[in-house]
């Protein structure tokens, strides 16, 4: 069976690393170094998390995210809202309130900027989640998958950066997964001991009867005893994820292709609004702490995260308004009700409110809101729709007391759309967006 890391290397090719580097604006060797630490670290975190139902559900749900089936789009920064939410749910489940520490560790060990690390995790984490999810979908079981990771951990522990053990609450990296497998081993031994006790009780109970029986009567009790012994041996050997051997149920070594499902939502960025319990688990948010100590909940790598990092950077401090004209931030959770061109879903207001809170932290900053459509339909209608949508977002700022921070709004229609009008809805989705840029 092929090593899990070797399987992933066939997907994260040198060409993929080059594309990611271009997207991040970072040196290829730094990105390569970061990926070599991120992937093993995620494997280690999954192993330490153990047989967690929420984690298993997230991995199973990951195979249904359309963007994952086309990794080339992911590597060029074209992750949709569903993929970003998968990344958020996966990372939050593994690291909880230590996620910020993990980001900092990867940045310091690889030399990447904090903003680049956030984007990189937004690319690699959903890929890893989908990869492991495909293992489960192909017939393996979660304990078996953990067993395989455990059996291979000696091949990747050396790639995990120093300090990672502390993030997981361990004294040493070598202890990753030990608590789970010790528990499994203990449970197996306890079960075997219980069976052994019952066998001994049965044996002693009938020992006298065996001695009293003549002829072949004793054979019946000998067979019962031997069968009980075989049962004990079977209980010891059936554990497919024992700590010592780390064996697992066979799983397929290739990532299967998942055909994207057609969308019936009128959205700027696609968001699954079902009430499915598993979906809700994936939609977990990352607490982001602002300079004043105020905490907002947002997706890692999302617009709030990007803005906070940028506003605190030297790039922003040294930038002129002319420089800022080409620096746009895309909303990643703004959605309009199906059948309505300008009515926002209730969830969409949360992100706009978050932006208002961030602006309160940086009182000298103002924003301009821009809205864009794809090429499908009449150009004038698209222009009108984009203007209405830009104003709809502004109204949220006004309603929450931040209207004076909006310097202007503009609808661009399909002016900057790049994808052909006859392309699929999924391909055209990246041209439909609401964005903002900063002004001093």
TrEMBL record:
<dbReference type="InterPro" id="IPR009282">
    <property type="entry name" value="DUF937"/>
</dbReference>
<dbReference type="Pfam" id="PF00691">
    <property type="entry name" value="OmpA"/>
</dbReference>
<protein>
    <submittedName>
        <fullName>OmpA family protein</fullName>
    </submittedName>
</protein>
<dbReference type="InterPro" id="IPR006665">
    <property type="entry name" value="OmpA-like"/>
</dbReference>
<dbReference type="GO" id="GO:0009279">
    <property type="term" value="C:cell outer membrane"/>
</dbReference>
<keyword id="KW-1133">Transmembrane helix</keyword>
<feature type="compositionally biased region" description="Low complexity">
    <location>
        <begin position="263"/>
        <end position="272"/>
    </location>
</feature>
<dbReference type="InterPro" id="IPR006664">
    <property type="entry name" value="OMP_bac"/>
</dbReference>
<keyword id="KW-0998">Cell outer membrane</keyword>
<feature type="region of interest" description="Disordered">
    <location>
        <begin position="244"/>
        <end position="272"/>
    </location>
</feature>
<feature type="domain" description="OmpA-like">
    <location>
        <begin position="323"/>
        <end position="440"/>
    </location>
</feature>
<feature type="transmembrane region" description="Helical">
    <location>
        <begin position="218"/>
        <end position="236"/>
    </location>
</feature>
<dbReference type="Pfam" id="PF06078">
    <property type="entry name" value="DUF937"/>
</dbReference>
<keyword id="KW-0812">Transmembrane</keyword>
<keyword id="KW-0472">Membrane</keyword>
<dbReference type="InterPro" id="IPR036737">
    <property type="entry name" value="OmpA-like_sf"/>
</dbReference>
<feature type="compositionally biased region" description="Polar residues">
    <location>
        <begin position="244"/>
        <end position="262"/>
    </location>
</feature>
<dbReference type="InterPro" id="IPR050330">
    <property type="entry name" value="Bact_OuterMem_StrucFunc"/>
</dbReference>
């Amino acid at each position: 069976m092929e090593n899990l890391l070797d399987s992933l290397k066939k997907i994260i090719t040198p060409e993929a690393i080059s594309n990611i580097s271009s997207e991040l604006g970072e040196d290829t060797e730094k990105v390569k170094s970061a990926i070599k630490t991120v992937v093993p670290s995620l494997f280690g975190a999954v192993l330490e998390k153990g047989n967690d139902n929420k984690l298993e559900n997230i991995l199973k749900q990951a195979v249904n995210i359309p963007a994952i089936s086309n990794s080339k789009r992911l590597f060029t920064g074209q992750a949709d809202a569903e993929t970003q939410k998968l990344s958020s749910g996966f990372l939050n489940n593994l690291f909880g309130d230590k996620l910020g520490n993990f980001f900092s560790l990867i940045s310091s060990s690889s030399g990447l900027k904090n903003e680049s690390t956030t984007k990189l995790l937004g690319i690699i984490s959903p890929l890893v989640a989908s990869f492991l999810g495909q293992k489960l979908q192909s017939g393996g079981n979660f304990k078996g998958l953990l067993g395989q990771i455990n059996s291979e951990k000696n091949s990747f522990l050396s790639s995990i950066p120093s300090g990672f053990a502390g993030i997981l609450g361990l004294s040493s990296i070598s202890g990753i997964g030990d608590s789970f497998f010790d528990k499994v081993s203990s449970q197996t031994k306890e079960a075997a001991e219980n069976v052994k006790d019952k066998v001994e009780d049965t044996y002693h109970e009938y020992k006298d009867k065996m001695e009293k029986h003549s002829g072949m009567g004793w054979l019946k009790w000998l067979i019962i005893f031997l069968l009980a012994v075989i049962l004990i041996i079977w209980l010891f050997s059936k554990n497919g994820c024992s700590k010592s051997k780390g064996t697992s149920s066979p799983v397929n070594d290739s990532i299967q292709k998942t055909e994207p499902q057609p969308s019936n939502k009128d959205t700027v960025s696609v968001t699954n609004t079902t009430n499915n319990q598993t979906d809700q688990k994936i939609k977990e948010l990352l607490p982001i702490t602002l300079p004043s100590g105020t905490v907002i909940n947002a997706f890692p790598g999302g617009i709030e995260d990007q803005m906070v990092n940028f506003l605190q950077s030297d790039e922003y401090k040294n930038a002129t308004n002319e420089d800022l004209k080409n620096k746009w931030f895309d909303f990643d959770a703004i959605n309009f009700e199906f059948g309505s061109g300008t009515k926002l879903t209730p969830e969409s207001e949360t992100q706009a409110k978050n932006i208002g809170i961030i602006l309160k932290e940086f009182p000298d900053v103002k924003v301009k809101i821009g809205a864009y459509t794809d090429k499908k339909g009449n150009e004038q209608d698209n222009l009108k729709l984009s203007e209405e949508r830009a104003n709809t977002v502004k109204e949220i700022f006004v309603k929450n007391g931040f209207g004076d921070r909006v310097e202007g709004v503009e609808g661009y229609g399909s002016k900057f759309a790049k994808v052909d009008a006859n392309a699929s809805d999924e391909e055209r989705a990246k041209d439909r967006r609401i964005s903002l840029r900063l002004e001093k």
